[in-house]
Write a structure and sequence with these properties.
276 residues; alpha/beta; Rossmann fold; 5-stranded parallel beta sheet; globular
């Protein structure tokens, strides 16, 4: 009997791969990551979506099909955590293709989709467009530089629509919370996942063997501070637009912005008094 299969999904930049990497060892599962970097059309697609959408999409469809066929055999041996679903391919196709190209894609997709495993559970990571854009900018992949905000917003809305109609077992996670830096947030997610998979609570390590938390790298610190800064700016905007403006919330949000800016300066090894 096949083992369980957990897939993590969400918009570009939401943290799918990071969370999948954290969940797999915590759940005692194998990790399967999407091999998006092997697609030779992807950098061209981000420069000229209209011209390169079809070859990009067909390459992804066949690559994802091959990987899921391999995953099917792997599930006979062990549980799997993946950072994507096969179903996402069709979502992107409907966003980027039209006319005869979309019709051809649909025929090919229909022939392949029946032969791949369905996730036991899908973890949908949800975040606002500001957070997504901030994370995309922070990881600074060359072909994602200058990412079109309107495209990310369309993609975010497409994901919302997809999961509103999705009929399989799903957990929706607020991915604006920092599960990388905040252990409590990750443990909360892990507990939800274990419950949804029917695994029961995880055994806690004995105190003498408890693993100390490793210090965050400057990159992780910068990432976390940028996420919190984005949330603080949003809180500041909301407090300022009220009638009358909420002065107490404005002060609180400004202080949080200042705190996160100082954290970013420290991570970048900038002068300590830069934001004093």
């Amino acid at each position: 009997m096949p083992h369980w299969f957990l897939a993590v999904e969400g918009v570009i930049g939401v943290g799918k791969t990071t969370l999948a990497r954290m969940l797999a060892p915590a759940l005692g599962a194998a990790l399967v990551l999407e091999q998006f970097e092997e697609n030779p059309f992807l950098p061209h697609f981000y420069r000229d979506r209209a011209r390169y959408a079809f070859p990009t999409q067909i390459f992804f469809l066949l690559s994802r099909y091959r990987q899921h066929r391999e995953l099917l055999a792997r599930l006979e041996r062990e549980p799997v955590v993946s950072d994507y679903t096969f179903a996402k391919d069709r979502l992107f196709a409907h966003l980027n293709l039209e006319g005869d190209e979309l019709a051809l894609y649909e025929r090919l997709h229909a022939a392949l989709a029946e032969k791949i495993p369905q996730p036991t559970l899908v973890l949908y990571l949800r975040a606002d467009t500001d957070t997504l854009m901030a994370r995309i900018a922070l990881r600074d992949r060359p072909y994602e530089r200058g990412m079109d905000r309107a495209y990310i917003e369309r993609l975010r809305l497409a994901y919302e629509g997809f999961f509103a109609a999705y009929e399989g077992p799903t957990l929706v996670i607020d991915a604006t919370r920092n599960f990388v830096q905040d252990t409590a947030v990750f443990q909360e997610i892990l507990l939800q996942v274990r419950g949804a998979l029917g695994l029961g609570p995880a055994q806690q390590p004995l105190p003498p063997f408890a693993r100390a938390s490793a210090p965050l790298s400057p990159e992780d610190t910068l990432h976390a501070a940028l996420i919190h800064l984005t949330a603080a700016v949003e809180a500041l905007r909301a407090a300022s637009h009220g009638r009358p403006a909420d002065r107490a919330r404005i002060v609180q949000a400004l202080r949080e912005c200042h705190r996160q800016l100082k954290a970013m300066a420290q991570a970048l090894d900038l002068p300590g008094d830069l934001f004093d």
